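tool_call: predict_structure(chain=1)
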Amino acid sequence: MSNVNKNAFERVQEARNPDRPYSLDLLRDIFTDFVELHGDRRYSDDAALVAGLARLGDLQVAVIGQQKGRDINERRYRNFAMTKPEGYRKAVRIMRLAEKFGRPLVAFVDTPGAYPGIDAEERGQAEAIAYNLREMANLRVPTVVVVVGEGGSGGALAIGVGDYVLMMENAVYSVITPEGCAAILWKDSTKAPRAAESLRLTAADLKSFGLVDEIVSEGDGWKVRDDSNVESVDPVTRELGRKIDQKLRELLRLTPEELLRSRFRKFRKMGRWVGGE
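tool_result:
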């Protein structure tokens, strides 16, 4: 089925497709000289979120991204990309390094949501997400966010405050999963397709609401590159890299004060009701 004809729930399923590129795949194919940094310097490392320093062409950048796994062992290791407080605090650590050394920040969002376990709550999950939102909103360096696959609720928002937000054509971004929404509203998770339509979670929906700035076309499909074919980078990934590079260079022309004012205006107007009584 073509991308044009896909309904909302079909896009949810595509966003979860294990053959889609994940953050580490994009770091490999778009960036060079990636050096991963570990730990939040307070509790531990969180493998659900990868972060470090890299190069994008001749630009030195900082990168953060949520990472899923492709087999059951890696999925368990990555906690299914459900970030814990130490992961968000690791992200803030990298953000501060980016600001200290004047490096633009690139963030890849791909999570079903923040980890809801008791241990995460005990270590301050809600506080960590709120803190990230505040700190990311006040960064004095350019920030480009890419919604790669699933953008799940506060788990995604915690690294989603960007001067420019790109969203892949078959990615989704929502306050709750369709299954969770259906279970709450109708006590029946099998009504997830109906919930998906109501949630307005597709890239086209979010672009129409002004919540994302640009949709990246996936053409006939977007697949992870075979490691054995080191010379072949998917055209969609190549185009995504070009767009990230272009937007960072545009944003670098702004002063830190201009960045902050523009970012404030951008997020301040979200959710504004226009029309009606």
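agent: The beta strands are 32-36, 49-56, 59-66, 105-111, 143-152, 164-168, 172-174, 214-216. Proceeding to next step.
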